[in-house]
């Protein structure tokens, strides 16, 4: 076992983990952060996307020990990164635009979308579609997801603060 210390959703965490444990398993099984989902075992779907030191990463694609010393934000802590309100503006935009059906891809889509606007606050539709290429949705056809990101971008408040 290896001891790791990191910050997750604003709280300090110190845990012993097996070196082979994936970050997504650590979040879900050790910390109970089940808002971060597993949709594949091939690093393809993006359902497991979290922020590591402010950037979107697929948490099934790295080991928990690699997050030692890092700051991790999951969908469960996203709203707290923004001023006030129960929801982050990107979560509100997804809600307003009906950008989900079953909702399985939604946590990862939102985490990636926030990072996308951090990188590019005024993306074209094509840039949004390219930016979300690593996140798969089996339900929506993506139109409303793109609209939600455009809505958050137009409001100028899609990004974490
Ligand atoms: Fe991580 Fe699918 S569960 S990319
Ligand atoms: Fe069902 Fe995206 S809303 S997978």
From TrEMBL:
A GO MF label: metal ion binding
Pathway where this protein functions: Alkaloid degradation; nicotine degradation
Enzyme Commission number(s) from the entry: 1.2.7.4
Keywords: 2Fe-2S, Iron, Iron-sulfur, Metal-binding, Oxidoreductase
InterPro entries per UniProt: 2Fe-2S-bd, 2Fe-2S-bd_dom_sf, 2Fe-2S_ferredoxin-like_sf, 2Fe-2S_ferredoxin-type, Beta-grasp_dom_sf, Diverse_Oxidoreductases
UniProt entry tagged with the keyword Oxidoreductase: yes
Superkingdom per UniProt: Bacteria
Key word Hydrolase present: no
Pfam families with a match to the protein in the record: Fer2, Fer2_2
Domain 2Fe-2S ferredoxin-type: 2-78
Protein name per its UniProtKB record: Carbon-monoxide dehydrogenase small subunit
Organism whose genome encodes this protein: Flexivirga oryzae
Organismal lineage: Bacteria, Bacillati, Actinomycetota, Actinomycetes, Micrococcales
